[in-house]
Amino acid sequence: MPDTEVWTIGRLLNWTTEYLAGRGSTSARLDTELLLAEACGCERIELYTTFDTPASDATRLTFRELVQRRAEGMPVAHLLGRRDFYSLTFHVTPAVLIPRPETELLVVTLLDLVSTRDGQGGAAASKLRIADVGTGSGILAVCAARHIASASVTAIDISDAALEVARRNAREHEVADRIDFFESDLFDSVPATEPYDFILSNPPYVAENETELLSPEVRDYEPREALFAGPTGVEVIERLVPQAAERLAAGGALLLEISPMIEDRVAALFDGDAAWQRQATIKDLAGLPRVVVARKT
Fold first, then answer.
1. What average pLDDT values come out for the chain (297 residues) when binned by 10 residues?
2. Among residues 96, 112, 189, 247, which is most buried (max CB within 10 A)?
3. With contact defined as beta carbons under 8 Å apart, do 17 and 35 qualify?
4. Other CB atoms closer than 10 Å to residue 57's CB: what's the count?
5. What's the angle, vertex CA 162, arms to CA 156 and CA 164, rounded to 5?
6. Cα(23)–Cα(25) distance, rounded to whole angstroms?
7. Residue 77 falls within a domain, yes or no?
8. Partners of 85 in the beta sheet?
């Protein structure tokens, strides 16, 4: 029999949530809300104020196309072209990693360290020099510039396509005038000028043999060069640690996002190097080691 029931906003939400859950989405309701809000041209909260409103044919067509691509595995952030991070919205493309909530811990840690430094009579935050190595979409560089008034930020990435996304985000958040962008493999092509007070990095840290552990939407849609470090997962960090020691001011700090699987190997890199004093390994909301902090001695 033909379906004579009207396709309201609420019916679309409920039916699609079940549909996406049946195709492996672990966030089916959120995915559905984001895609339907995009199709309707409204905010997510507005969906529930129009729950009983029939969806237009144009909305249903746009929504159907988005849902089909999501069911095939394409990340929602790629479908929308954006992702929220630390209360800001960032443009994303397949050239960059999709921002993740765990990485917000790097921003929180940086701001805590800056606050402590100022409270102890250190250099004023307005004079801080900060580098973001492997900036990707620019989330760390932009957040640092937004939340630390007048801080000077250097954003580095080996990918020119990623830097284009980062520059766009810096312009959108009105901090482009305080961020210098460099296409470089770590610090290789970055001029050595004044030392940095903080170096941040969310480097590639997935080992090549962990490919099958990744979800298909990560493995098949996000840039491999931003995910995989090499056979052990610490290859990029092994190169970054000595370079960071050369670029940091005395007492400056390196903040690294890591995988819990490589915590011991990363700790050993610092513990075996007299240039460093490892401060802490900070756990994420799941209780897993996520951010390593080390100071240059």
1. 74 97 93 97 93 95 97 96 96 96 96 82 66 98 94 97 98 97 97 95 94 88 94 96 96 96 95 92 94 96
2. 96
3. no
4. 9
5. 95
6. 6
7. no
8. 88
- 33 with 139, same domain: the answer is no
Number of domains in the chain: 2
Q: Which domain holds residue 186?
A: 93-296
| 0.85 exceeded by pTM | yes
Distances, alpha carbon 247 to alpha carbons 131, 197, 288, in Å: 9, 9, 29
- Which residues are 138's β-sheet partners? none
What tokens does 253 get? 């700090």
In the sheet that holds 152-157, the strands lie side by side as: 179-183, 152-157, 129-133, 196-201, 248-257, 289-296, 276-283
Q: Facing residues of 88 across strands? A: 85
Tokens linked to 160: 């020119």
Q: How far apart are CA 139 and CA 166, in angstroms?
A: 8
| Separation between Cα atoms, residue 24 and residue 47, nearest integer Å | 24
Q: Are 144 and 200 in contact (CB under 8 A)?
A: yes
CA-derived radius of gyration, the chain: 21
Six token digits for residue 131: 């580098």
